[in-house]
Amino acid sequence: MSDQIREQELPGIGRRYSVQADGGEVSVVIHHSGRRDIYLADTTGHQPPAVATLSDDQARRLGAVLAGAYFQPTLTRQIEAVVGGLLIDWVTLRPDSPGAGRSIADLQVRRQTRMTIVAILRGDDVVVVPEPTEVLQAGDRVVIVGRPDDLDGFVRHVAG
Amino acid sequence: MGLLAATGGESGRELVALGAALLIAGLLARAGRRMGLPTIPLFMAAGILTGPHTPGPVLIRDPADLGLLTTLGLILLLFHLGLEFSLDDLLAGGRRLLAAGAAYLAINMSAGVALGASLGWGGREVLVIAGIVGISSSAIVTKLLVELRRLANPETGLLLGIVVVEDVFLAIYLALLQPVLGGAEGAGEVAASVAKGVAFLVLLVALARWGRGPVGRLLGTGDDELLTVCFIGVAVLIAGVAANVGVSDAIGAFLAGQVVAGTSVAHRVQRLVLPLRDLFAAMFFFAFGLSVDPGALASVALPVLAAVTVTAIGCVVAGVIAVRIQGLGPSSAANIGLTVVARGEFSLILATLAVAAGLDGRLGPFTAGYVLVLAIAGPLAASRSHLLARRLPARLFPTPALSGKVSP
């Protein structure tokens, strides 16, 4: 265990792992039965802790979400602007992104995500209004426009 | 044995009685759960209410009719304890935890000896009473911590450590109690009884230590059904052999649990034994209730009151000492004291062994009253521990800065 996570045996119950978070301490108790309790104590300690109880299965799913298996907001998002309800943004593709190595037509970007790719920044090159046949590559910074609500769908579909 | 031997119409009547008894016990315990009460006192209450000593319908006239079923309850309670128990847990806690546990035991056992001596029920009874009032109910304590949402509290590791020390002590205490229960007289007989018991224990401890391979292979099957049948067989067989060589079935069952704990199937057995333990332990508590005559309860009211008072004070003092050793604050002391005050299965097991060995019959109603009061009042007090924490003098806690976390 790292320094940041404290581990304690709770005989007859299971194990407890505590981590200091902003504004309080988060403790996870793993029962022998597989049940998990998540305790959230505020720093003042005067409030009773908030507690969530999860089954083994639910805990694993939540763990996957926390670990970023479903969505990782690590894509560099340097510009983000909403102009009159229109979002202009860019995302960077990683080698393991679902869009890397596939063409815009192949990805059916507009039909699947309702976003439009208006430019691709690839190294020093700039592809303005790429053709549907353009193949996206790892490291591409893809400039998109669309409705703000559709951004997450695009990120899932193309950047992963 | 009645239940097992019964046939025909007799069997129908007994099955109706048993089924109704379990159902009443279960529903009563469910109602109690809503008020935050543990199951043990309510199973006992169901036994008292439907038993022969109270008005209303009598389901089961004689607790002996449940004979083997309740013995299985006792065996499974201790088998499970042996299974969960690990010396590593104890040693991992370090010297402070051992000191806190030893302080707890010293205070509460000596209070028990003093109480037993002042009751004047006899020398052997004094030793049994010391155990009855000295040892907490680990079942109630663990359940209470989960339900009061105190698992993340700073004192919880310490509190559970004290309970582990108590469990270790219980195993040794049961072994030492054997000559007392066996009715050995004279130094020679006592020595022989102790020697026989110790030899058997050494054999089992050796089996637990080095026999995990063969025992694991004996039990090792991928099939849960076969595993269940085999491990119950091992537990009951060892408990039975223990009883036959003059060591109690209780300690035999505990060590059977220790033997299985070292094997590769330990985790599966831990899971499989729970529903069986819950069922048969419920019958054990119910049968204990059946044997209780409210009239006899009234006659031991004063000793019960004295024992409850002594235990409550002893536990709070032990809680204060424990948190001083660890550098925690008053709320931790109140939480520990009012949680470990719960009494349950071990007190009832000790009383059952004592009464079966022919010791003073008043031990039965005394323990029933004592457990009923503390198993109900203990959890209710634990949930209001902040009221006690406020009244504990601050000078008892020299380093209040360390007590930052105040628990609910």
UniProtKB/TrEMBL annotation, chain A:
GO terms for molecular function: monoatomic cation transmembrane transporter activity. Transmembrane segments: none annotated. GO terms for biological process: potassium ion transport. Residues 76-160 form the RCK C-terminal domain. InterPro entries: AAE_transporter (IPR050144), KhtT (IPR026278), KhtT-like_N (IPR058776), RCK_C (IPR006037), RCK_C_sf (IPR036721). This is RCK C-terminal domain-containing protein. It comes from uncultured Acidimicrobiales bacterium.
